[in-house]
Amino acid sequence: MSTKKSTLGKWLQRYSKIAGVPRIDGRGLRHSNASYLITEVSHRLGHKNPTTTLKYYAHMFANNDIELASKIEGSINMKPAKNLKLNLMSTSM
After folding, report:
1. Chain center to CA of 42
2. What is the 3-state secondary structure (H, E, C) of the chain?
3. What is the pTM of this model?
4. Of these four, 29, 58, 78, 80, which has the most CB atoms within 10 Å of its CB?
5. Contacts by 40-47, CB closer than 8 A, 24 or more apart
6. Per-residue pLDDT, 76
7. Which of 65, 40, 59, 60 is nearest to 50 (CA)?
8. Is the pLDDT of residue 23 over 90?
9. For 30-89, how does the pLDDT look when each residue is reduced to its tens digit (9 = 90+)?
10. Burial of 35 (0-12, 13-18, 19+ CB in 10 A)
11. Nearest CA to 68 among 87, 83, 55, 86?
12. Integer Cα distance of 43 and 25 in angstroms
């Protein structure tokens, strides 16, 4: 299912306002999601940090290198929300 950029922008604006969080654009959302996923995979594999994960698995992806891992080391600090202000299951568009 494809979504127009303008539609995604409207959704992000609407739901960030409902959630009471700063608005993020599509690129920022993609970056945040990738950072979260890298951190989650690292945690599930029992690695001390995402750099370790990327060090051992980056060779599986063309054009990736360890330099990327060292650049992001220490820059990911994900914490779950204390209170969820939005129920995605009951909210209609």
Report:
1. 14
2. CCCCHHHHHHHHHHHHHHHCCCCCCHHHHHHHHHHHHHHHHHHHCCCCCHHHHHHHHHHHCCCCCHHHHHHHCCCCCCCCCCCCCCCCCCCCC
3. 0.50
4. 58
5. none
6. 64
7. 40
8. no
9. 888 888 998 999 999 999 888 888 888 877 765 555 666 667 666 666 665 666 666 655
10. middle
11. 55
12. 27
- Looking up tokens 């220490």 gives 74
Among residues 38, 43, 45, which one has the least CA distance to residue 75?
A: 38
Band the pLDDT of 24: cuts 50, 70, 90: confident
Query: What local confidence, expressed as pLDDT, does residue 88 receive?
Result: 57
